[in-house]
Amino acid sequence: MSEWLTFNMSDGLAEITLDDGKVNALSEAMLDALLEAIAKAADGDAALLITGRPGCFSGGYDRKLIQAGGSACDAMRAAGDRLTLAMLDYPAPLVAASSGHAMAKAAFMLLLADYRVGAAGDWRVALNEVAIGMTMPRAAMAIARDRVTPQWLSRCALQAQGLNPEQAQAAGFYDALQPPEQVIACAREQLQRLAALPRQAYRETRLLLNAPLRAAVLPWLQA
Description:
The chain is of the alpha/beta class. The chain has helices spanning 28-43, 63-68, 70-88, 105-112, 138-147, 150-158, 165-171, 183-195, 199-217; strands at residues 5-10, 13-18, 47-52, 55-58, 94-98, 100-103, 115-119, 125-126, 176-178. The protein has one domain (5-220): 2-enoyl-CoA Hydratase, Chain A, domain 1 (Alpha-Beta Complex), CATH 3.90.226. Belongs to the enoyl-CoA hydratase/isomerase family.
């Protein structure tokens, strides 16, 4: 589909694999490609799996753009805000498979999925905004407060602690851990399980579940 990711959809199931050959930095171009793929999956009412290249789900926003600031950084963050809404509003099951590191915005993507599978091993999940000198955005804080296990919230959002996969599961970023070679198979199995549930009931209940968080983040988004 693009130089940033691959997209496949068949028999009511869709799969997006982020792969820029590096750390899957969420630049504006990467985010635009991701949003386009999500929209295509949504138009097909497909249960959706989002994953990354082996060893790295994503390093989060493009650090160079954050450091440079200005209009390019603003455009990237606006695209990231659109991604938040696209994931909250997705009309079908949404599963994430993290094949390695998941940092900052990528970790928030995990929190917004319905079911999350992580790779066991020497990987880290982190809300590292404070560690790189950023005040946690208000919308991001609302997501963290809603989705991170309360006893881990300070360590994640304020202390910017990098979590190993077991800690990330305890904190609420993952529902299951698998050896790296089994992550995608497990995620696909869960996607098929969720896709088999009555779709209208799933869609309407998902909207009800996400409505309070959506209302909390909407005033702070640039989307």
